[in-house]
Amino acid sequence: MSLENNKEVISLDPRITRANLISGNHSDVEGIVHFQTYEVFHQNKRGAQHKHVGIVHAPNADMALLYAKEQYARREVTANIWVVPSSCVSATEYEDDDIFTTAPEKLYRNPASYKVMDRIQAFKERGMKATDEV
Amino acid sequence: MNSIEALKELLYKIADDQLIIGHRNSEWTGLGPLLEEDIAFSSMAQDKIGQSEHLYNLLHQLGEADPDTVAFTRNAPQFHCSQLVELPIGGYDFSLIRHFLFDFAEYSRFEALKTSAYQPLAQVSKKFFGEIKYHTMHANTWVHQLGKGNEESNGKMQESLNYAWNYALGMFEPGPAEEVLIKENIFIGEIALQEKWFSMISPLLENSGLTIPSQAGWAPIYGGRVGEHTEHLQPLLTEMTEVYTIDPSAEW
Lengths: 134, 252
Prior knowledge:
The complex is a heterodimer of chains A (about 130) and B (about 250). With about 130 residues, chain A is of the alpha+beta class.
């Protein structure tokens, strides 16, 4: 591809050559208005939670939904999509992320610390025995 | 004409339309107006090519050559696509208007084919109806956005609509198969299809601030269905088959 400034671009890709593009530094495009972004939430079956999967740029919600479908629902099972303007999201500050730390002596608040696995195991074994007897 | 010949004629024109518009629209890949649109438009182009493969497979079951041979070894006069789909991509305004006019015709066509007496065709029609529905949503959203955008965007869309209109009417070129297809409940026929299409698109275009050319000036551009094409089809085919013809026996 020819990279000299202000020359017509000749490419191995015939589509590029046909487009009659002029080469050069195009970073001088000024006043370009960027679309807002929409946060995309994907639901894989009815009744399930919508999960955040990413963003799309779009001028309005209708077009955001079109793009969300192609961007985030093309390759997976999908029941429903939400889009929400990113500007509607309120967030905590990263500098305040210490509010999320839990003091080590309060581990009992973490469900993983409950010693229930023995009881679940015992329940399962009872269940198995009951089935065996039938 | 017996019903198998009539069915082949129907399948060829639908499949060729899809293959050619799929290839045409894929020419926007990497050049689309924004990243998300580039991905969406390319994805729909792929859908079209995939749909054509399903129909070429049905033709194969009826004794025609395999899909790759049919898609990649014919010359322009052997294609049954309408001239609308072979026109160059032009500007995005034209590509969107063509996408709108073509995909609403596909929507009406496949809605009718879902109840076709020819079961294999009814089945594939149901299978890719969702894709086509999305294509019409995409087309209508864009046409509405630009039709209602500003004076410049409305003007460009209107100009493209005026240019594309008679080509679009050419999609409904009646053929010798009509009578048999209707009688055997295989398909509703091109005249009924055009009416369904028109009643779908006219309120949408009006709602988008666009005016359908007045009926007095309608002059459908026929010929595509019988192998008469514009000068644009053969170069497209040459480009599309460039890699295939290097080694037709290559495994992909």
